[in-house]
Amino acid sequence: MSNAGSASPWVAPEFSGGAGLMTADRLEALQQAAYDEAYATGLEEGRQAGRQELAERLNYLNQLVACLAEPFRQLDDEVEHATVSLAVRIAGQLIRRELQIEPQHIVGMVHEALSVLPVAARSVEVRLHPEDAAVLRQVYSDTQTEFNWRLVDDPLLSRGGLQVITETSRIDASLEQRLNDLLVTLVGEQRDPET
Questions:
Q1: Do the domain assignments include residue 124?
Q2: pTM over 0.70
Q3: pLDDT value, residue 139
Q4: DSSP annotation string for 81-102
Q5: For the chain, which terminus, N or C, has the lower number of CB atoms within 10 Å?
Q6: Cβ–Cβ under 8 Å, residues 135 and 147
Q7: What is the pLDDT of residue 88?
Q8: Number of other residues whose CB lies within 10 A of the CB of residue 172
Q9: What gap in Å lies between CA 99 and CA 161, rounded to an integer?
Q10: Is 62 exposed, middle or buried (0-12, 13-18, 19+ CB in 10 A)?
C-alpha cells in the first residue's frame, strides 16, 4: 500500500515581515536611532563640560585681572596722597610768603581765634611766632588799642600759626595743625603734619 498518491509536496511557509522578524532596513533604522541618541547625549555632555570649563577659566581670568589691578589701585592711592600732601605743603609756603608780604593778616587770625572763646574766658594767652607777635604789637600800638589778653612769643610756632590758651581750653591754630586739618578733610584720614 502506497500513500504516494496522497502525499502533497512540501511548501515553505510564508513570512509576511511580521513584527518579530529583523530585516536589514529595520536593523539599519535601529542603528541610526541609537547613533542619533548617543550623538545628542554626547553633544549635550560636551556642551555642559565646555560651559563648566569656560566658567572656570572666566573665574580664573577675573581673579587674575583683580590681582593685576590691585597694584594700580595702590599706586592711585599713593599718588592721591602724595598730590594732596604736596598741595598742602605748597599752601603752607604760600601762607608764609603772604605773611611776609602782608603781615597784618595775623591780626585777623588772632581776632578769629579769640572770637571762638567763651565770653567768660579768663587768663587768655595768645602765643605767636616772634615775628608775628612783633607785627601784632605794632598794629595795636598804632591803633592805641590795649590787649585784654597776654601776648607770648613762641619761636616753636611757624609763621602764620597761633595758639590761644585759657584756664579751661586750648585752641591750636598753628599752621601745621590747620594744614593737617585741611589734609584730613581732603583725604579723609589723619596724617602727620610733618609729611
A1: yes
A2: no
A3: 79
A4: HHHHHHHHHHHHHHHHHHHHH-
A5: N
A6: no
A7: 63
A8: 17
A9: 10
A10: exposed
Kindly report, residue by residue over 26-64, the tens digit of the pLDDT: 888 889 999 999 999 998 999 999 899 989 998 988 888
Any idea which residue has 585784654 for its cell? Answer: 148
Q: Percent of the chain having pLDDT more than 70? A: 69
Distance in angstroms (rounded) separating the CA atoms of residues 58 and 89: 46
Q: Where are the alpha helices (H) located in the chain, listed in sequence order?
A: 24-101, 105-115, 130-143, 175-187
CA distance 151 to 144: 16
C-alpha cell at 33: 536611532
* Within-domain flag for 63: yes
Cell readout for 27 is 536593523
Range of the domain at 64: 26-195
Number of domains observed in the structure of the chain = 1
Residue 34: how many CA atoms within 13 Å on its side-chain side? 6
Residue 46 grid cell? 560636551
**12 backbone dihedrals φ, ψ, rounded to 5°:** -70, 140
Render 1-28 in DSSP notation, one character per residue: ---TTT-----PPP----TTS--HHHHH
**What are the tens digits of pLDDT across the range 67-96?**
887 777 777 777 777 766 676 666 666 666
Separation between Cα atoms, residue 79 and residue 64, nearest integer Å: 24
CA dist 122 and 166 (Å) reads 6
